[in-house]
Amino acid sequence: MANSPTHRFGQIIGDLLEQATVETVRPIAQKHHMYLDFIHPRPTRDGKRKIHVEDILGNFHDLDLVVEEGGSEEVIGRPRAFIEVAWRRYTKHSKNKAQEISSAVLSCARKYADDAPFTGTVLAGEFTENSLQQLRSQGFVVVHFSLQSIVDAFKTVGIDAYWEEDTPDEKIEEQVKRFDLLTDLEIETIKHCLFQEEKESFEIFAKVLDQSLDRHVSNVSITSLWGSNKSFETIQDARDYIESMNLDASDGYDFIRFEIRIEYSNGSRTTMEFTDRYDALRKLALMDND
C-alpha cells in the first residue's frame, strides 16, 4: 500500500540519499558554471517538481538529477549529466529498478551523445551484484549502499531501519515517528555516516563527474575531399593510381565530402563525415554550446 509504514520509511531513505547526492553534485556543477536540476518546483516548468527529459525517440522520462550547461531556474540548458537515485529493500524489486534506470537514462543520453554526458546512479538496499555490474558495463558510475550500511547509519540516531516482510506495521510506524522528531543535526549525522561508509565510492563518483563536466572542445579540424571515387581489384593497381596522380592539380574535380574531427580536452575524439554542406552546418550548430 502506498501509505504503509514500509512505503513511508522507503521514502525517507530515498529522500536522504537524494539530498546526499545533491550535496555532492552541486559544488561540482557550480565549479563548471553549470546548473543542477533536481526534483523541486522550477519556474521554467511552470513550478512543477518533476524533471521530464525527452529521449532520442521523443519519449519523456522522469529523472532525479540532471546537470545542465547553460541552464538556470528560468532556462532549460543542455544536459551534461544524468543521475538516478533509488532504494529497494528486496532483490525481487531491485532487478526491475536497475533495468528501468538503464533504459530511461541511456535513452536520454543517446539524444545528447555528442556531449558524452555523464551517467551515474546512487543505489541503496538489496541490489544483486549482477544488476550493479550490468549498470557499470553500460557506462554508469555506481555508488551502492548495502542494506547494512543504511541500518548502521540510522542506528546512530536510535532508529531501527531493518525490517522484513513479516515485520509488524506498528514497529515500523514507531521508527517513522522517531524520524519525524529528529533535529536537523541528527539528520545530518545520518547523511555523514552514509558518506563515510561509501567515502571511496563517492570520491570516484565525484572525480569522474568533474572530469566529464570539464570536457570541452580543444580543436576542430576539417578536411575537404575533392575528386572522383576509384576502386581497384589489387593493391598494386591502387598504388599505381596514387603514384600517377598530379597532386598539384585540383581544379575540375567534384566535391566528395567533409571529414570533421573534433578533439576534446580529455583526449577523446569524434569523427564525422558529411556529403552535404548544410548537414555539416546543422550538426555543428547543434553541438555548439557557446
Automatic annotation (TrEMBL):
GO MF, one example: methyltransferase activity
Q: Quick one: a GO biological-process term for this protein?
A: methylation
Q: What name is this protein filed under?
A: DNA methylase N-4/N-6 domain-containing protein
Q: Is Transferase a UniProt keyword of this protein?
A: yes
Keyword vocabulary terms for this entry: Methyltransferase, Transferase
At the top level, the lineage of the source is: Bacteria
